[in-house]
Design goal:
By secondary structure, the chain is mainly α. Helices cover about 45% and strands about 5% of the residues. The protein has a domain of about 350 residues: Serine Threonine Protein Phosphatase 5, Tetratricopeptide repeat. This is RagB/SusD family nutrient uptake outer membrane protein.
Amino acid sequence: MKKYSVVIYSFLALSLLACEDKLDQFPLSDASAANFYRNAADFEQAVNGVYGQLRPVPERYYDLSETRSDNVYGSSTTGVRPWDPVNDFVNTLENNELIAEAWNNNFNGIMRANTVLDRLDPGLVPEEAIRNRFEGETRFLRAFYYFDLVRWFGRVPLYDRVVTPTEALEIPRSSVQEVYDLILSDLNRAIELLPPTYNAANKGRVTSWAAKALLARVHLTRSGHTYGIDGPGVAANEYSQALTLLNDVIDNGPFSWVNSYASIFSYNNENNPDIVFDVQFQSGQIGIGTTLPGYMGTPAYFNTLSGNIALPQSSVEMREVSKNLINSYEANDARLAVTVQRSFTDPNGFVETRGFYRKFLDETATILDRFDWPINFPLIRLTDVMMMKAEAILQGASGGSQQEVDNIVNMVRTRAGLTPLANVTLDVLLDERRREFAGEGLRWHDLVRTGKVKEVMDAWLPTEDELNRMQESMNINFVIYPIPFTQLTVKEGLYQQNPGY
């Protein structure tokens, strides 16, 4: 169990700093901030509040990346679940609650970060090392939230400081390049300021290594295809910059290869050497765990269990892991059983043959309710860093070799119990990443970044759509999501909707 709770829920004490969802309520009043920030302890609590906006990330990645991709067939029996239109590629998503959540919670995190950065001062935090750490953590998190936004929405409004309500109503969406400029600046500064490691009491805080790994991912994403839209790819050709950072993390970081795939996700092995950065969750009190295992599961399965899990564990129906994904696993691939619950028999004797994600599920854990699963969610793993290195090399980064690519992929395959490959291509690498990171929210971004998304989705849609609800082919505008309708109506003409919606 973690000694440090990153306390993604101790941010509840920061309720006086919380903003509402609407743009015209975005800023924090100067009086509230001035009264709160008095010493280093107050700033630490405030920084924990910035971490707090990571809480919805696991479910968001499941909803907007896994369900959008060829990993999950998410059409519900009624067709009215909020994820149905995400799965089905409809063009009427601007009122969808999942889209609004991605916008609102990321901007809440940015608001909290700006408030900390605006107030951080040597007079209040005189110890330079502590002050640098607070700034580094906050800049990393602001960059993370903006990177999340630019990948979902493309152009977004840019707030690099606390603004007044009047100012906010005059700030339009910035270009993707301008958003990236802030992300790059924040991550480079975070690398300078953050420590490489922490003591046990602070385990889980972001390190300089995590900042380097995220910066490498930004370089890869910026280098991706543009699709002719204002999306996350700007054809920047920064593969060599990414490779330099990835080599540094691999060669010099405090991470190491974990030989057992299952142990990476074990409740008894959190913060293991494969984890570069994750969302920290705990148990023992309702509200400090994650909902993800129950959210990915199905009530029928949890009703078959007995022991320490409070029931019911899920209030929503199962989203089926796609048959295409399950069939992509080779025989004896150890990752399949860890990742997917392929079938079960419910209490009425019905045999369910559709699969659901179980990667973060442990039936032996003591669970208070469906909001309290005590398992961290990985945002960056060493395995991901290594496979991003392989991608950078295959995309033309200088200083890499085909042998390095093959070695990386074969380390992953050997751990999964599979035979090695030679002359690995980008398509083979993407297939291996799909199986390795299934359920971790990377698939959609991988397809978009590498220019494969329309090709893959157009081939997958007609074969998997058993209920005949999805579009026959993917509109290229759907690489990104629409701006939430509530934001379009804050001030007429301030934002224009993304094309295709």
